[in-house]
What does this fold into?
Amino acid sequence: FFFLMIRRPPRSTLFPYNDALPILSSSPSSENLQITVRQTSTPTMSKYLNEREVGEELEIKGPYGKFIWTRDMSSKVVCLGAGSGITPSRAFLKYFIDEQLDTPIMVLYSCSYGDNVIYEKELPKLASEVKNGDYELSITREPRGLTNIRSGRINKEYLENKLKGWDGSNFYLCGTPGFVLHMVDALIEIGIDKSRIFREKWG
It folds into this structure.
């Protein structure tokens, strides 16, 4: 993640945008940095960012954190994201496509409502373009128009079944503190070594 610094009038002082620390949704192979901004019903800085014009300049500081993967770190990759925490999973998929990697990668996405799904059509398409990609969306409340999707939360039982054959994976978790902590507990309970779990959370 990184800090996005914005000049706030009237004194034009810099302050960090930290509604949720921006996490890159672009591939490390890309020449451009991309972030995903979802405007909420009570927007603060998200509204400001969505109103920026092409060509405006913003100052960033970073990157920070340890949310990284290289080929020598693991033989497989599993990404778990909730809500807007799915953005780094997109970066992973884009990178795997750019580099034509055959490393297996699985993306598991949890979202409350069907009309809040980010990258609804793009994520399954990206996963299908990866040589060994897998993707599944879980809706915890109402599908609201989405069909042929899984209903229910991502929990220990689901992970235990879904991760059969995924020994040797590194796990990358991103979402609210509650989601991330629950995923960490569930993964440890099914025998995943804590050293293989990487996380980013906010809120």
Observations:
- The radius of gyration is 17 Å.
- Residues 10-15, 17-21 have pLDDT under 50 and may be disordered.
